[in-house]
């Protein structure tokens, strides 16, 4: 019930953001922001509710994970906005949030019994850090996409809908970097806490099960990206494309592995 | 204070050619216009605006014909234009028209390049200069401040200043889309022609921190660089300089390309892929069109820029229509305010007049009567209530105006019937 309410909140906010994107009326943006904030608060209550209902951190089912993904993206965005203004970023972010919420809504909301292996204090730490990292990576994806749209119009010299509505390339490039420099340490921390949990649950820090392998691949991808950026100046279009590829790797680690490659993590989600 | 006592007299680029306007420039002594205008009788408040496209005096005056003549004389004092010809070049706006005109000027609807942003700043300076010398009063203070907020409203609600309508503006606008803030960015001018200078000027106005000029003859480069406090280099240093700058404006008279794609590739590596904005305003072109295919390099030639300008011009005309609507609306608001301003003083004047009469008559009567203090008090009281009862209906009648025209007529009528304008400023 609460979940549906926050879902509606997100939908409303996204629609309002899209209307703002078209009309560029500031009052509409303020409304969209307030709705997003409201939906975020409702969503927080929803997650707390599920915590008490399940008796453990509700991050073990597919529904909960994706819902938490949307939640962390919402709050990552709102906390960002607070010190960092990027024109029309909200429209893109809110669309991704709404999409995630839709996926969460479509999957089973039943509360799963927690297998004994997973009953640990590491569960909330590992899962939440990893997913919050994903939230920042998703924002990196949005900014990469915005960069490519703006870059295309500037290169082709055809100024359509995006030219006037999107911020400058430099601002978007900074935004990508900003998202990644926050997301990457969180991702690292997520993997480290995960391996501690693995040690506790299964006796070894690293198993090379598909989820772990793909997390590592994602991590290496982002590490290479940041390294190249600082050393060789990989910025601009290339950085934007990499931010998008990195996010696809994140999504694959989240869903591809779960549904395509069986492993110890697979019963988790 | 009547609406019609607000006037604007001046010349602009539409009414007078530059040969006339330049004779009206008041550059030698900035104090002179204020001194001269203050000497003009009945010019109660004024604000003096002088830019390269217009010279205007915004003023209020109760006795207009003479004041207008004096201001005309003042404006054309140092010109060689015959007095009979003056009227061909000036415009005179009165009342609502004057308010509309001022709003249009402030919002840059009356400018040569509609929507250009400088005029508002110039008007603000003009107002500050006039206000500092105590030349403005209640009406103009309010009117000018309104003009500023109307201009701001038009800027935010329409896209009138949103798009560039000259090639150099277009270049600035694109630079902003690439770099965001231009502060701290460097520009390299290749070729020291007039176009390069114009483009550089716009960029410097937007906060560009350093200008470097590269030219075949170093002497011209040095001269141009001096204008922008920049430095001059020879053409041989072009590649080395390109590693350091963010924007490059090329306008040489070279017959072929001076920069090829292969030249810039290694430069981008050296630059660590920091974006590079290349503006080629030379005809024939200086820069290899294939440069645009390099990552993080943005190349625009004259045609690309003109295309931006054309699209923007059409859009700006649309926006100007919306802006005119706002001007009309705001003019009405100001007229409303003026009327409310009139209502209160009219009622006060009415009361004052009645009081004066009553006091005078009382004094006359009481001087040859021998009455006790108590009786005097009651008589005074009676006179007071007669006045109040008498004035009650006229005041009610004044306040009950429904439409604007209605109100104006009533005020005018009341002032006439009670002769309120016959003894001006007797109280002061």
Explained architecture:
- The complex is a heterodimer of chains A (269) and B (428).
- Chain A is mainly alpha-helical.
- Chain A folds into 2 domains: 1-114; 124-269.
- Helix content of chain A is 79%, strand content 0%.
- In chain A, helix 3 crosses helix 5, helix 7 (169-202) runs antiparallel to helix 8 (210-232) and helix 8 packs antiparallel against helix 9.
- Chain A is globular, with a radius of gyration of 19 Å.
- Chain B has 3 domains: 3-162, Glutamyl-tRNA reductase, N-terminal domain (Beta Polymerase, domain 2, 2-Layer Sandwich), CATH 3.30.460.30; 167-310, NAD(P)-binding Rossmann-like Domain (Rossmann fold); 341-417, no CATH class.
- Chain B is built from 15 helices and 10 strands.
- In chain B, the strands form 2 sheets. Chain B has a 6-stranded parallel sheet. A 4-stranded antiparallel sheet of chain B has the order 2-3-1-4, sandwiched between helices.
- In chain B, strand 8 (247-250), helix 12 and strand 9 form a beta-alpha-beta unit.
- At the A-B interface, helix 5 and helix 7 of A face helix 8 and helix 13 of B.
Task: Considering the chains and any ligands shown, give keywords for the structure.
heterodimer, A: mainly alpha, B: 428 residues, alpha/beta, Beta Polymerase, domain 2, Rossmann fold, 3 domains, six-stranded parallel beta sheet, four-stranded antiparallel beta sheet, 15 helices, 10 strands, 12% strand, disordered C terminus
Estimated helix fraction of chain B: 40-55%
Number of individual domains of chain B: 3
Instruction: Tell me the total number of β-strands of chain A.
Output: 0
Output the number of helix runs of chain A: 9
Poorly predicted residue ranges of chain B: 424-428
State the major sheet of chain B.
Answer: 6 strands, parallel
Strand and helix order of chain B? EHHEEHHEHHHHEHEHEHEHEEHHH
Q: Write out the strand line-up for the largest beta sheet of chain B, numbering strands in chain order.
A: 7-6-5-8-9-10
**What does the oligomeric state look like here?**
heterodimer
- General shape of chain A: globular
* Number of beta-strand segments of chain B: 10
Please tell me the CATH architecture of the largest domain in chain B by its name: 2-Layer Sandwich
Helix content of chain A: over 70%
Question: Largest chain interface and its two residue counts?
Answer: A-B, 19 and 23 residues
